Amino acid sequence: MKSYKRLWIAFGLVIGISFAVLGTVGHHLISHAPPVPARVVTPDGAVVFTGTDIVDGQGVWQSIGGQEIGTIWGHGAYVAPDWTADWLHRESIFTLDNWAQQMGSASYSALSDEQQGALQARLRDAMRRNTYDAAAGTITISPLRAEAFSKLEQYYAGIFAKGRDAYAIPAGALTDTAKQRKMAAFFWWTAWAATTDRPGESTTYTNNWPHESLVGNEPTPGAIVWSIISFVLLLAAVGGMVWYFASKEPAPVYEAPPASDPLLGLHPTPSQKATIKYFYVAALMVLLQIACGIITAHYGVEGSALYGIPLAKWLPYSISRTWHLQLAIFWIATSWLATGLYVAPAVSGFEPKGQRLGVNLLFGALVVVVGGSLAGEWLGIEQKLGNLWFWFGSQGYEYVDLGRFWQILLFAGLTFWLWLMWRALRPALSTPSESRPLLALFLLSSIAIPLFYASGLMYGQRSNLVTAEYWRWWVVHLWVEGFFEVFATVVIAFLFTRLRLLRTDIATSSVLFSTIIFLSGGIIGTFHHLYFAGTGPAVIALGALFSALEVVPLVLIGFEAWENIRLGRERNKAMWIAAYKWPIRFFVAVAFWNFIGAGLFGFLINPPVALYYLQGLNTTPVHGHTALFGVYGMLGLGLMLFCLRALHPGRAWKDRPLAIAFWCINTGLSLMVLLSMLPVGLLQGWASVQYGTWYARSSEFLQTPLMNHLRWMRVPGDTIFALGMFAFCWFLLGLLTGHSYDDSASVQEGSWELVEAGSPGRIGAD
């Protein structure tokens, strides 16, 4: 039996060292977060507002949608402004205009260049000087800044009370005057942190983000230098990886694939049959997600209506976008978890007693969590839950919007899923075999799924924004993008080994090696999300270097695509493999979008100097759509088809709807990015470099005829994409009604067998 000792040692070192760095640096950045003062006062001691107002205001912002209605520090939605950049610019202009009027000028813009330069220098000195007194717990501001706060408080109160279509904010979004003032205090604090130098340093708490020339916010030297180093490191690592792969022999397949299908020969167990409903619920969630996506994208044009229908009265942008993101995570996770429940007894060859009951109970819990959290998010954002918004409504943080109660229930469900996986895998793990190392990695990746989702429970309702952002990105980057991908990679390896198209030793070595390479950059690479989230310069250095390493394995993702194509072409030797054509093609699409979405579009925004100008612009959803759906969504669809193929043995498919679905989904995704989101994002990037972040996110820029035209250009891609998903769901429906089966043809069966626990059954010989 082949030994994988060196690979396991490398795997352990990568995990241990990476999390030691992530935890140590995380502790430092949380302990050095921008301080929330006890009071903000003027020089004569008059209190402008308190620290309690700031923290309460953060809660108000979260309760009305938070990161689903504009952005803070560049994180969130893309129609309304970045409130940090917008407040900072408006406060700066208010101050400059006031000083200009004292000089006898109508406004700052009416001054000569020399006079403007003098006032800008004065403004930079006033805004960047840190007046926080830790002993007294106070921040002292000038009477003019206090006056600016009062004016801007009224301005933002008007936006949220009266609504503004350009920001997709409906009338009545927030009418409580006390809450309006507290939210203004929170906006002020985020802008203060973004323009105030850390003690003893010449950079702000947010590493000089956002770009604002009026106060001297420009990229730090570290952002520029580490970006250059990351480019060099990427080129060196890619060269080394190409050299390594060029020296390796291609992974061999079996000389003679089985004459009949080993996987289709099984008789599905009760628990495997019980997973079918998961896939159909996932399909329903896909359709609902698409509907929410169409509505959300359209609000960027009409603001509060859908082709004239005042839909925002019942479903405002903040809710439609919340549902769009949450449903994406729910349906993708559902398809992957259901695949795990199907594969676990398949790879062990045993069906534990009571497994079907467990699968059904978990399904019921899934329905409760999904339905309850979506309803709670609507009630919370509509301000109908009072002080219970955090627990049962929306937490207001992107991707982890669901209320804490539903979050805890989901964690409990994932833990129960892990227990179901363990009891199904235990017999195989206790028996020495060639597959045991791969099974061990399968179990470890399964453990990581509830474990890393639990990181979303590490911050509270009143935690500092830096603390919440740090742990939130553990969920988004490590749970969604990290260990779920490892889990899926292992599942695919098992499927190919059980089809006897790939040798177990080759699959084990490949999965371990690719996991090591991916996680060596991916874990510490989490920091690239936190460059400007109130963190220090160390985050820029680590994030730049390790996020570059994340791209390295994706550059060679074509090898994975070619391997899948090659396995599919083995049908020339065994015609039954043709039955797996469409699952394999979806796996090829995963490889393609992994390179394009996670690789190219990911690295477009990952270097610090690039993200400095692009943070919070439409280049981010370009990466988000092509990576989240292009990679994880496509993988979910492929796994869904693989399991449904095995759960309906012996019957051929009418796969024309799948052909339509595959090409429409991929074409539509390409068009929505290339015709709309990418051009909008690049034009915003140009505006950000030339004028500042505030302008790139302003309605003055985003509501120009050109930008509106580009947003309308999403319609062709969105329509084709939606047609593809409808065709996919129509095919799935046909598996229930029978219209997706071709009874004039048949799929050859093999002799692969599953048995109940305690019986001496076997899996086909390797």
Automatic annotation (TrEMBL):
One of its GO terms (biological process) is aerobic respiration. Keywords: Membrane, Transmembrane, Transmembrane helix. One of its GO terms (cellular component) is membrane. The chain crosses the membrane at residues 7-30, 223-246, 278-301, 323-345, 357-381, 405-425, 437-458, 478-499, 511-532, 538-562, 582-605, 625-647, 659-678, 720-738. GO terms for molecular function: cytochrome-c oxidase activity; heme binding. Residues 37-211 form the Nitric oxide reductase subunit B cytochrome c-like domain. Coiled coil: none annotated. It comes from the Bacteria. This is Nitric-oxide reductase large subunit. It comes from Paracidobacterium acidisoli.
